């Protein structure tokens, strides 16, 4: 969205990535809130923004990337349940009902918030639409990055 070029370094986890940022071997990282926030609070890292569409309840003073100057930016992690095609509708409905019930439990919501995560449930149809939309969004971005990185013809 900004045209800024980065070199991706495929770390084997957030801890080694943060170690290298803290040690000055790399210039930035996009850690999870639970991984990065303690270092921000201690003054060892500077947060540029959270990547979601809204501020995190775990870090309400940190603006979103969109608020910080990149309008429309939104990228986040999500978790969802999927089942094989052809799974009986009654089974899908029962799993969805149980997950909705579980995600509404106050203790679970509190624990998830402490990890910088928010519980959200939806219908199987709404989740399927979200997957289609997300795939289309990231597909465009991936194609644009590949096109920019291909060598110029001679």
Keywords:
154 residues, mainly alpha
Task: Present the secondary structure layout.
Blueprint: H1 14-22, H2 33-41, H3 89-103, H4 106-114, H5 124-149
Structure report:
- The chain has 154 residues and is mainly alpha-helical.
- The protein has 5 helices and no strands.
- The protein is globular.
- The two termini are 28 Å apart.
- 5% of the residues are buried.
Q: Give the low-pLDDT segments.
A: none
Record field, number of beta strands: 0
Order of helices and strands: HHHHH
The helix-and-strand class reads mainly alpha
Mean pLDDT: 91
Q: What proportion of the residues form beta strands (DSSP E)?
A: under 5%
From the alpha carbons, calculate the radius of gyration and give it in angstroms.
Answer: 19 Å
Structure, briefly:
This protein has helices spanning 14-22, 33-41, 89-103, 106-114, 124-149. By secondary structure, it is mostly helical.
